[in-house]
Amino acid sequence: MKKLDGEFRFALGKSMPVLFGYVTLGLGYGLYMHNLGFSFWYPTLMALTIYGGSVEFVIANMLVQHFNPLNVLLITLVVGFRQSFYALSMLKQYRHAGWRKWLLIFGLTDETFVINHYTKVPQEMSQVKVNTWITVLDWGYWVLGAFLGGFLGSVFQLQVKGLDFVMTALFIVLALDQFLQEKSHVSSISGVLITIISLLAVGKTYFLIVTLLLLVAEYYYLTRRHAKGDD
Length: 231
Prior knowledge:
Elements lengths: L1 H13 L1 H20 L5 H9 L4 H10 L5 H12 L2 H6 L11 H7 L3 H9 L8 H30 L9 H16 L4 H17 L4 H21 L4
Helix pairs in contact: 1-9, 2-9, 3-9, 4-5, 8-9, 11-12
Protein name: Putative azaleucine resistance protein AzlC
Keywords: Cell membrane, Membrane, Transmembrane, Transmembrane helix, Transport
Membrane topology: Multi-pass membrane protein
């Protein structure tokens, strides 16, 4: 028990930066759900089960529109696809995690990956237990923030204007940052053009599906071309 307590305290210290970030973002998410008309237990339950960050914002918005399960599935896959790349680097570290492996996989967010991957655990402590505690704590921070946002919004009837633009603003900022870091803007420009063409061709109901399929095809083509050294 003493050893476990030491590992918990070690994990708690390492996860402190995530605490402030996740609780703050979770508060915004909970308030956003409240502004959309949902009870506080909706964001809490979604944070517990989906635990997808930006995906939860997207799904919250889609719940008040004509619900299309296929669109939700594709968006979730696309938004979370990046995690499959750095998840591969954790296979060796999580190999002997036993039953904890499933929890570690479920809780592998960007921030949790960084901490678990780069933290050097003291020899007297269990790497698996420290990683598990960090994962569980980070998950708890997000759920706590989502609950507080929804609960406080319900109790005080808070209506914060502009929260419906949060995800749009976030994606714009991320897109601009990515655009500025690119050596070539072919993918970004073609992505915008493909989206506009798809919208005009098939309408707003199915344009997202068509756009995602075309973008995957483009990515495959550019990757193959780069591998052959044609760039």
